[in-house]
Amino acid sequence: MKILIVEDEARVGRFIERALGEQAYTTRLVTTCAAARDALADSPYDAIVLDLGLPDGDGFDLLREWRASGFNEPVLVLSARDAVNDRILGLNLGADDYLPKPFSIEELVARLRSLLRRQSTAPRATTLEHRGVRLDLLARVATVEGRAVDLTAREFALLELFLQNPRRVLNRTLIAEKIWDASYDLETNLIEVYVRRLRQKLDQPGAEPFIRTVRGAGYQLA
User: Fold this and answer.
1) What would the CATH number be for the domain defined by 127-221?
2) I need a labelling partner for 113 at 20 to 30 A (CA). Which of 23, 85, 119, 209 fits?
3) Which of the 8 DSSP states describes residue 16?
4) d(C-alpha 197, C-alpha 209), whole Å
5) How many CB atoms lie within 10 A of CB 129?
């Protein structure tokens, strides 16, 4: 499990990083909004521990951006803002939990473990649909406007990833890790080839491409 820690107090950040490392989590510690955005663009994470008072912005703005872009993994807000209104705002913006500072590291680890366990056992949709493209995850069948489309296993997995992340720009590293289970050699054009194959099978004449290329960033479900 990979955890992103967004915390500008170095001592607190290292404390959390060490505690999660002892529980066999893989962690990355960043201290600014900009670094947090870059980290999430570079690699997928299973959960985020998010401080609010960051030197270049507000953690609430980050949370709002992530949820709007389709990031659905658990976010645990960790903040000295312990007013009821702040907690309500955080939860309304999409936080999965809110832990005020000062905090017990044992409680933080327990809450994070609970969020990850809940995420892994949550009911998953058995069908995904967007712009006439429908994916039946149980029957392993893809259709476009009701017409069956023959997909390879990799193409099916790639389409599933896009349909699970509407509006979110998926970079090449994330796609490689999710579909090939490794940081694939990004100098190759393998991902581009698979995206092109999907376009050929899914795009409708005269319509906007189903998968859009975002120059310098990756690919996005259009």
Assistant:
1) 1.10.10.10
2) 85
3) H
4) 12
5) 12
Residues forming CATH 3.40.50.2300 domain(s) in the chain: 2-119
Q: How far apart are CA 17 and CA 78, in angstroms?
A: 14
d(C-alpha 171, C-alpha 165), whole Å: 12
Structure tokens at 164: 């699970």
CA distance 62 to 77: 11
Q: Which pair of tokens denotes residue 147?
A: 């017409």
Long-range CB pairs of 177-184, under 8 A, 24+ apart, other chains included: 177/43, 177/44, 178/44, 179/154
- In the chain, which residues fall in CATH 1.10.10.10? 127-221
Q: Which CATH code is given to the segment(s) 2-119?
A: 3.40.50.2300
Q: Distance from first CA to last CA of the chain, Å, rounded?
A: 30
Q: pLDDT digits over 125-163, tens only?
A: 688 889 899 999 888 999 999 999 999 999 999 999 999
Q: What is the DSSP string of 90-126?
A: HHHHT-SEEEESS--HHHHHHHHHHHHHHHHHSPPPS
44, 4 in Cβ contact below 8 A?
Answer: no
Contact 97, 115 (CB under 8 A): yes
Q: Structure tokens of 91?
A: 């939860």
pTM beyond cutoff 0.85: no
205: preceding bond cis by omega (within 30 degrees): no
Helix (H) / strand (E) element for 10: namely: helix 10-22
